[in-house]
Specification:
By secondary structure, the protein is mainly β. The chain has no helices and seven strands. It has a seven-stranded antiparallel beta sheet with strand order 5-4-1-2-3-7-6, with no helix packed on it.
């Protein structure tokens, strides 16, 4: 299903390494899409909608590392989560 028409900020496809902390557990993942309003984080472990987490990543080589607080907005089992 295509949700692009519902987004205020469009997302662009990327493939970035990320480290996130969820329930005091730190894991590595990949960011597959990124936009002004959120990102899609790959993760085989499910997380409930509304769960808070911290995500660290570097959006480009010439930009500094970012550490952001996020909230799970949706989950696609076996694929990842939109935050």
């Amino acid at each position: 299903m295509e949700w692009t028409h519902l987004r205020k900020y469009p997302r662009v496809p990327v493939d970035l390494p990320a480290v996130y902390t969820l329930n005091d557990c730190t894991r590595q993942a990949r960011i597959l899409s990124l936009g002004g309003g959120g990102l899609f984080l790959t993760d085989p472990e499910p997380a409930a909608v509304g769960t808070s987490l911290s995500v660290g990543f570097r959006p480009a080589k010439h930009l500094p590392h970012l550490q952001v607080k996020a909230e799970v907005r949706y989950q696609i089992p076996g694929k990842g989560m939109g935050v």
